[in-house]
């Protein structure tokens, strides 16, 4: 998860807690972090292979496929960043998609052992717990003396509304453990004589972060730059920044060199390789944060369970702010209270934190302001940046994710100061009520899950190999897309169970073909998949003519499809599909099918 830099620019606290008490605190945070991570993902733990995240089963299928493909690529000597298993005949450039290559490689043994769905769940759960622990390490070892303060701040960041929302299947955005490591690595460069080693370490971290969450790495870099710029020009820190600048720049040079070497090929693929595109094809106005969303409550929270949530996000995975009014008020109070008690150096840090939070909050509102679901027409700063390279590939609403760690740091600083100089009984009671009113409504609730159709026996038994040549093309109907992800789930099963390869004519990926050279999800539609999509969605068999039969069969020849498969139950990620209408439409186009295991099968002549 992207964030703003923390207060590592300040000297570490001098008060060292009792070692035994510190170890107990560390263990407590570990237990709470793991318990909360399991709690949030508990619906999937009931049966990882048969359940899916209700609001985002398509992304879950994509990440499961990426895990299976990554392991297959490594064990078979294939390119992990480009594949011809999808989007026949053009293939897919995974470097411009969220390829999570490091996860796929590291967890390949587990994927082969327990399968992609269970491995996906393990990584998702570890991401949430590790994010809390990484922030706890940074806060407790570098920023505050109180382990309680560090624990509260870290747990808030890891289970903030944005993180819980992205736990709806986003293995990239929930990898928030990368951010405190990157931030610590950046600030380590300022230490005298540490620029070489620090640059080497940070370069490797940057390469890892790029392979897991490139967009998050970009946001982190922007946030660090804003923080450092504000912090360095503050009169109280200007001399310190000037003295540290030579070593800092040397370290950044080493970082750029190391990361550049490690990422040379992925970056070439990303910006100059085949099947590249610019932008994402997502509307930045739709995928911008509603200003009122900052004071709203998220759906997967205690407040949401009480019915206090709203529909201000474009979808449940993008509740990137949703802090609630009490937390916003508490944050302002904490900032003001800390400011009045801070020396000039700490005020520089607070200023940099505040500016970073405001800048990213405003940018998250996108090019046009929205309030409570209504567009106001007010132009905003993001509209100036939207056409810049790299920026045009980011969704503005996600910039709000930077605000949560700023709030977490301010909460930690406040608790740390309160414990260092305990207030009177009345003041302590007021602070306690304030923290409870702000944080209790945001306690996360488990993700919504539902049963998904099992992978057909036709695939699990390997029967498909009797009808598809090695490396040949098979397609389910409807074709595999984000809204109909079955094909990639089947392919992931075959790859992870060492059955061999079959290719798919479409797939859930970002590729070229959108308006103005931008990207789009999946390939541009053709006659066959358009007719199948229409039948599945409407439940009506479209009018089939000699022309549509000829064009549909030409599409299948173009893709090289050898087998067309329809299971008894088709999984629609966004809407239900009519299997009977699909079968009757395919029959009208291709003739009568045969029943093989638990699917309807049409074989397609290759000539």
UniProtKB/TrEMBL annotation:
Keywords: Membrane, Transmembrane, Transmembrane helix
Species: Micromonospora humida
Record protein name field: DUF2079 domain-containing protein
Highest rank taxon of the organism: Bacteria
Annotated signal peptide: none
InterPro entries: DUF6311 (IPR046278)
Domain DUF6311 residues, every copy: 79-376
TM region positions: 27-45, 94-114, 120-138, 145-164, 170-188, 195-212, 218-236, 248-268, 321-338, 350-368, 388-415, 427-448
Nucleotide-binding found in the keyword field: no
One Pfam family it belongs to: DUF6311
């Amino acid at each position: 998860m992207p964030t703003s830099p923390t207060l590592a620019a300040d000297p570490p606290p001098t008060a060292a807690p009792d070692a035994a008490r510190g170890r107990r605190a560390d263990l407590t945070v570990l237990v709470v972090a793991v318990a909360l991570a399991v709690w949030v993902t508990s619906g999937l733990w009931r049966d990882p292979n048969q359940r899916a995240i209700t609001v985002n089963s398509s992304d879950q299928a994509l990440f499961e496929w990426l895990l299976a493909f990554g392991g297959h690529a490594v064990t078979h000597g294939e390119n992990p960043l480009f594949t011809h298993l999808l989007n026949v005949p053009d293939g897919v450039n995974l470097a411009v998609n969220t390829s999570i290559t490091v996860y796929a490689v590291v967890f390949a043994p587990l994927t082969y052992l327990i399968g992609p769905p269970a491995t996906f769940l393990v990584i998702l759960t570890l991401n949430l717990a590790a994010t809390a622990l990484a922030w706890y390490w940074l806060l407790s070892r570098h920023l505050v003396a109180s382990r309680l303060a560090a624990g509260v701040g870290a747990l808030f960041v890891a289970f903030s509304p944005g993180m819980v929302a992205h736990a709806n299947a986003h293995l990239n955005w929930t990898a928030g453990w990368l951010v405190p490591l990157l931030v610590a690595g950046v600030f380590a460069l300022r230490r005298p004589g540490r620029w070489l080693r620090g640059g080497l370490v940070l370069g490797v971290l940057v390469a890892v972060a790029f392979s897991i969450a490139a967009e998050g790495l970009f946001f982190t870099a922007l946030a660090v730059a804003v923080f450092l710029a504000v912090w360095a020009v503050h009169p109280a820190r200007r001399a310190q920044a000037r003295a540290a600048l030579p070593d800092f720049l040397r370290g950044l040079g080493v970082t750029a060199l190391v990361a550049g070497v490690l990422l040379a090929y992925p970056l070439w693929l990303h910006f100059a390789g085949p099947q590249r595109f610019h932008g994402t094809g997502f509307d930045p106005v739709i995928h911008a944060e509603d200003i009122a969303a900052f004071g709203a409550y998220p759906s997967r929270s205690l407040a949401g369970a009480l019915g206090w949530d709203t529909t201000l996000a474009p979808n449940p995975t993008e509740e990137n702010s949703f802090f609630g009014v009490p937390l916003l008020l508490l944050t302002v109070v904490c900032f003001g209270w800390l400011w009045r008690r801070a020396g000039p150096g700490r005020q520089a840090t607070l200023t940099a934190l505040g500016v970073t939070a405001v800048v990213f909050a405003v940018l998250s509102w996108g090019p046009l302001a929205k309030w409570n679901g209504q567009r106001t027409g007010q132009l905003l700063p993001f509209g100036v940046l939207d056409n810049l390279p790299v920026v045009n590939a980011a969704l503005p609403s996600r910039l709000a994710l930077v605000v949560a760690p700023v709030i977490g740091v301010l909460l930690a600083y406040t608790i740390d100061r309160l414990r260092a100089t305990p207030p009177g009984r009345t003041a302590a009671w007021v602070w306690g009520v304030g923290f409870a009113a702000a944080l209790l409504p945001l306690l996360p609730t488990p993700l919504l899950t539902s049963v998904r159709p099992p992978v057909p026996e036709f695939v699990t038994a390997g029967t498909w190999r009797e009808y598809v040549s090695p490396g040949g093309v098979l397609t389910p109907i409807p074709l595999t897309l984000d809204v109909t992800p079955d094909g990639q789930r089947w392919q992931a099963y075959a790859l992870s169970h060492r059955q061999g390869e079959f290719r798919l004519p479409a797939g859930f990926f970002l590729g070229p073909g959108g308006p103005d050279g931008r990207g789009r999800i999946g390939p541009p539609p053709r006659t066959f998949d358009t007719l199948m999509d229409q039948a599945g969605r409407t439940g009506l068999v479209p009018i089939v003519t000699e022309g549509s039969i000829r064009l549909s069969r030409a599409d299948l020849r173009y893709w090289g499809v050898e087998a067309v498969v329809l299971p008894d139950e088709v999984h629609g990620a966004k809407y239900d599909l009519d299997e009977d209408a699909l079968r009757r439409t395919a029959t009208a186009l291709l003739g009568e099918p045969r029943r093989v295991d638990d699917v309807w099968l049409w074989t397609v002549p290759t000539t």
